[in-house]
Amino acid sequence: MPLTLVTVPCLSDNYAFLIHDAGSGATAVVDVPDPAPILAVLKDRVWQLTDILITHHHDDHIQGVAALVAATGARVTGAAADAHRLPPLDRAVAHGDTVTVGVETGHAIDVSGHTVGHIAYHFPGSGLVFTADSLMAMGCGRLFEGTPAQMWASLSRLAALPPETLVCSGHEYTAGNARFALTIEPGNPALISRKAEIDAARARGIGTVPSSLAVELATNPFLRADGAGVRQGVGLPEAPASEVFAEVRRRKDSFTG
After folding, report:
1. 93 forms bridges with which residues in the sheet?
2. Is residue 58 among the annotated active site residues?
3. Span 4-125 CATH architecture
4. Residue 22 predicted with pLDDT over 80
5. Where along the chain do its domains lie?
6. Is there a catalytic annotation at residue 61?
7. 133 is catalytic
8. Of 8, 10, 200, 209, which has the fewest Cβ atoms less than 10 A away?
9. What is the tens place of the pLDDT at every residue in 198-225?
10. Annotation marks residue 107 as catalytic
């Protein structure tokens, strides 16, 4: 049986994610922006938290870890490369290492760029990838520490996952990201349709995360930097994909629409 996924809104626009293996009772949370809503879901579902999986060191992803460990005794896993600036880890992992939740095995993926040491967790049996601030719905994280080439390599790793994979990203930034995406590919019919769906969902107070990788591949300009539409949109028809990505990211950094 695949893992049960529960998306937990936290703070003003963050997401944490609970995954639960019904057979064993094992339950993990990916990132802890705020322990209170996570504990509320655990109580409502009568689940015992066994594991905390950390993606990167930014406070809005880890500031609730200590309180959640105190409340549940859960084991903490995070990146070895980031261990010096994460809460105390019970297990440090690197790219290619495995993590288990119940009977399901997940894989750590290096997605450095937003930060150096950022990791994603891919659970192929359940078709889930937890990307936090690397690949986001309609976007990607700002490059606070890494280089454009580094982030493009990270996004390319994620793009190679099965297209039916659900992308569980860390923030509700999708509406603004969609507005920006239309400045790059205004004639993309899949993008036009998706923006309308996003606007309708947000008008009803419905979240837009997670999203399918297939939809991201069709609409997210940061994943599409190797395609003709985005190349034309930024005026770099012959440039390497990493340079096209860098220009898209530069434009997004100054976008105010």
Report:
1. 79
2. yes
3. 4-Layer Sandwich (3.60)
4. yes
5. 4-125
6. yes
7. yes
8. 200
9. 999 999 999 999 999 999 999 999 999 9
10. no
